[in-house]
Here is the input.
Amino acid sequence: MTFLTIFLSSGYCFKAQDYEEELISKPLPRIISQGETIRAAYGERVQLPCHVQQIGSYVLVWQKGNDVLTARNIMVSPDRRFKLQPDHTLELKNIKPSDGGDYTCKISVLGDPILITHTLEILLPPTIRADPPDGNYVVKKGRKVELKCVASGNPDPTITWTRQNNLLPSGEKSLVAKSLVIESVDRHEAGIYICEAKNGVGHKSATASIKLQVLYPPEIELETDRVHSGENKEAHLTCIIHGNPNPTVRWYKNSMLLEETNTVRMESRSNRHTLILSSIRSGLDFGNYSCVAENTLGTFKKHIEVHGRPTPAVFRSSPDAGGRSAYQLLWTVDSYSPIQEYRLLYRQIQPYHKMNDGHNLLQGGGDWTNVIIPGNAQNSGFNHKNTYEVSNLLTDAEYECLVQARNQFGWSEASRIFHFYTGKTEPSITDMEWKSGSSKLGQTLSSSIVSLLVIVSSTAVSSLLLSSATS
Here is the structure.
């Protein structure tokens, strides 16, 4: 009589009599389930099927690697999370990362096993951390920067970059990438960058942040490089200063370092630094001032002039101020001191699109007429208004003009050029018709000539103003 003894790793055993004859006389078992890859999230429950036909007295064993989990209906593994169903399905609940791997359902048939293998893949929600771990990245201006976050999870997460309360340096709102590269960093790229990891497992994403600090020498912006003031008035000189490390700021008049007095105050609000001069004395306080900012990476300086000259005039003539041969000009000027005189320059503008017997392509403006107009020495207010009628003009013609004002401290800058027309309507100008050459060539030549005329006109005006001032 033949005895077959089966020993199990857990210490269990059983005996069967005359197995050889019984097993040979019956049909072989067949596993009808197919091996598959099963994906499940951490903490979920999974079932690994192993449906068998004609198992008879054969022994079905579940294994993970070389570890036996079950034999027939006996639970060999002490892990209570495993459960064997009547149909030989192996159930595992509250799965964890270490449960991942290959699970084999096997039946030994006279030493030749029948088996299927399931692969259990544990899906893990994303985690992410900044690199460096403290989330602080400090770099000098102009360097290349690569911001990195280390993400993990199963499947591998995608990383999306955003910037707190701002767009990314590329101008995009977000970017999907493993790292964020800035080729040449400056202060505008400083801020908090957020990396977000997602892989579809769970309902939440994981985020980390990196604070990018850019070290750079001082940079200065001016509200204006000229401050207009007057006797016994106040002047505010403002420098907007950026720098990291935070710069120290000093104020100078010419080369003399300024300190606070009864008439000199210094205010700082964030990166806005203001020098306040009260009770201006024209002989002492007018002049050139400078703000100097300094940190460990460098020093920078910008100049501001405090003066009492008039502001540039602004033309305010109405559209219907022109007659057939005259035009009534009106302008305003701001000055704390009386205006002593005005200088008016005007000239006729010849049509630019005029052909002259096929030889001269176009004609420019005429000669400038220079008129000195007395100011009102009795007006001691701040706002000054003046009118002047330009007469003996051509009918239905276009003119341009500009004006300067002078008080006891000197001449103002020239106003912007003002265009006016005699007659009631603005004359119409038609495009040139080129007799030969391509349209593109004509447009390019026309643009070049007009640009040249503007340069010549500006140079002529500057020369005329300079000669008039020196005379």
In short: The helical segments are 19-25, 282-285, 439-470. The chain has a mean pLDDT of 84. The chain has four domains: 25-123, 132-216, 223-307, 314-470.
